[in-house]
Amino acid sequence: MEVATTHCSSVLLPAQTFRRNKLPISTPLSFVFKSSNNLAFSAAHTKFSSRTARRPIWAPGLNCQACSKVDAAGSDSWWNKVDHFKDAFWRFLRPHTIRGTTLGSASLVTRALIENPNLIRWSLLLKAFYGLVALICGNGYIVGINQIYDVGIDKVNKPFLPIAAGDLSVRSAWFLVLSLAFVGVLIVGLNFGSFITSLYCLGLFLGTIYSVPPFRMKRFAVVAFLIIATVRGFLLNYGVYYATRAALGLTFEWSSPVTFITTFVTLFALVIAITKDLPDVEGDRKFQISTLATKLGVRNIALLGSGLLLINYVGSILAACYLPQAFRRNLMIPAHAILALGLTSQAWVLEKANYSKDAISEFYRFIWNLFYAEYFIFPFI
């Protein structure tokens, strides 16, 4: 019997084959206080969908209606592929890091505008948007190249990431990271001048040597911490504020609030660099990645990170007390006191949970939420 493949007078016979795919999984998330669940920590959100595919077998002699059904099935399949890629690409970008980058840049731009309200003009909005896109591209390049070289580790520590889960090929990942780097450098070079472009490229370089052999600086705890603190702390805050003042036609000048947030966030980024290894101890030990968490233990690193953050908050309160002309004390003091109490409470919960894997992950998410909270209040202090 011949099988026709081109005639409209055909029918779809019910022969079925099935594709293996993954079941839906979602991870609950939290915001700054555990009781507030309105905002989600989107980095942990991962979706895997279960689908069934039909393979058509064509037989001659029947009407054209079957052709339209096949066209619809093909269209559905195409949209499914697009949706699958969008989901994988979003996970590839590590959304929680994008949120930190977006909030940080928006907060610093807002602060610069508050300090110079007479210089605000609508044309700045487009330039600010270009800057944000460039920062997201740089962020995506750094976290993406890390995933390319950490596939084996991620299969143990973060199996939801797209390369580790098999949802994104290494070849596609390379295309994405190179495209992100190219677009980011192009945007910055065309819009923000040579100095900001050099800072941007420095950030990409540090992100590269952090993950890529033979450098792979993430193997060395102190160097790894310094790289993360420099990129996410100093370069982001200084670069964005410098670029915003330049766009306003002003020379760079440190103000007390900007000095405060740059110092605060640089130390905070150091804490993130230390505590980010807490949920990954199992995979790091398996692949002989030396971190402070593998050397000193989860409990000691959690206590160290909490202690450094408490120093940050105490320093913030003291700055407001001794520099009332530079800060709004009625906001600066109670806001940081509340955040410090929240941190202490979360550290106590972690201790009571005996540093279980779920409790460690919750603690790390909470630290990121504290990071976001600082940028929320910064423009108004």
Can you walk through the features of this model?
The chain is mostly helical. About 65% of the residues lie in helices and about 0% in strands. The protein contains 14 helices and two strands. A two-stranded antiparallel ribbon has the order 1-2. The longest helix is centred in the first third of the chain and has 28 residues, at about 65-90.
- Order of helical and strand elements: EEHHHHHHHHHHHHHH
C-alpha Rg (nearest Å): 25 Å
Mean pLDDT: 82
- Numbering strands along the chain, what is their spatial order in the largest sheet? 1-2
Q: Number of helical runs?
A: 14
Percentage of residues in DSSP E strands: under 5%
Largest sheet: 2 strands, antiparallel
How helix-rich are the residues, as a percent range?
A: 55-70%
Residue stretches low in confidence (pLDDT < 50, at least 5 long) are 1-62
Span from first to last CA?
A: 80 Å
Q: Please, what is the oligomeric state?
A: single chain
- Overall morphology: globular
The tally of strands reads 2
Structural category: mainly alpha
Brief rundown of the structure:
67% of the residues lie in helices and 2% in strands.
What structural keywords apply?
single chain; 381 residues; mainly alpha; two-stranded antiparallel ribbon; 2% strand; globular; disordered N terminus
Question: Any chance you could write out the topology, listing elements then pairs?
Answer:
Layout: E1 10-12, E2 58-60, H1 65-92, H2 95-115, H3 123-149, H4 151-157, H5 162-165, H6 170-191, H7 193-211, H8 221-247, H9 256-275, H10 281-286, H11 292-296, H12 298-322, H13 329-352, H14 357-377
Antiparallel strand pairs: 1-2
